[in-house]
């Protein structure tokens, strides 16, 4: 097999069309959000979020490897389906390049992420529109408008993901991944969020069981490994986590209709970590990050500080009953 070759940049790719009648015009969109450079790279390489967070197009993959992904995107436009052939390449640690072909137009984009202070990042997206020389002045303004509109629609889903990861880092959470191969982003069982001693331990709290309305959760702590959602469903009390261990999404729900919840980033499902009947007498449960004491009329939650033993523990698995 011959060694592979990758184009160096968007500009070099466009320059290779010089022998044809195709020419390119460019425009930039710049955005500052929360997160580190790797969070932006993850966001662009994250294949699993496309169907859950965006869900406005259908995708048919032809190749997925560490730094290359190719597919056909079935894009709905004016009530009709248009197939776009799409290629995504990671060119450097902070740089990605994409190209699409659509009818007789070429769309390219290069994304560069630059770090700012306090887990914030600036992302510059340069769009390049290529078309036959005489057609370019006509299609450029139309496609610039469409691409800008599409960018803002996509960012409505993506910016909260980047902001959230910046927030987790500021709280002291460790997101240890330093690279994201495209294919690994489809593994929802991975755990890429690790609590550290910098994460603040919340004060213990008592919740009167009579104060719980059916289906409406009471929140404990904040959305980290200590955070909990306590909910009453019929005659049962259930306690759910507030942070997804996969990539750190907030799992808070406005309302619980079932005995499980689905992560809003990639769809991983979670059951309660504690479940007991409302009529339960005195009892207790213990997990790596909490001790729960039920007195009959009250649920007391006592957080447990991180130790060497619990640093790798998963806060979303069911906890065991102990002697009350
Ligand atoms: S963050 Fe990926 S499934 Fe929750
Ligand atoms: Fe996205």
Q: In angstroms, what separates the terminal alpha carbons?
A: 66 Å
Class per helix and strand makeup: alpha+beta
Q: What do we call the CATH homologous superfamily of the largest domain?
A: START domain
Number of helices: 4
CATH topology category name of the largest domain: Alpha-D-Glucose-1,6-Bisphosphate, Chain A, domain 4
Number of strands: 18
Outline the biggest β-sheet.
7 strands, antiparallel
Helical proportion, percent range: 10-25%
CATH class of the largest domain: Alpha Beta
- What is the mean predicted local confidence, pLDDT? 95
Q: Low-confidence segments, ≥5 residues, pLDDT <50?
A: none
What small ligands are held by the chains? FE2/S2 (inorganic) cluster, fe (ii) ion
Beta-strand content: 35-45%
Q: Give the strand line-up of the largest sheet.
A: 1-7-6-5-4-3-2
Overall tally of structural domains = 2
Can you describe this structure?
The protein is α+β, with helices and mostly antiparallel strands and 324 residues long. It has 2 domains: 10-186, Alpha-D-Glucose-1,6-Bisphosphate, Chain A, domain 4 (2-Layer Sandwich), CATH 3.30.530; 205-322, 3-layer Sandwich (Rieske Iron-sulfur Protein), CATH 2.102.10. 18% of the residues lie in helices and 38% in strands. The protein contains 4 helices and 18 strands. The chain has helices spanning 10-15, 37-45, 49-54, 136-171, and strands spanning 22-34, 57-64, 68-77, 80-92, 95-102, 105-116, 120-132, 205-208, 218-220, 228-233, 236-241, 261-262, 269-270, 274-277, 283-286, 290-294, 298-303, 320-322. Strands 1-7-6-5-4-3-2 form a 7-stranded antiparallel sheet. Strands 8-17-16-15-18 form a 5-stranded antiparallel sheet, with no helix packed on it. Strand 16 and strand 17 form a beta hairpin. It is elongated, with a radius of gyration of 24 Å. The N and C termini lie far apart (66 Å). The relative contact order is 0.13. The protein binds FE2/S2 (inorganic) cluster and fe (ii) ion (FE2). Residues 43, 49, 53-54, 154, 157-158 line the site of fe (ii) ion.
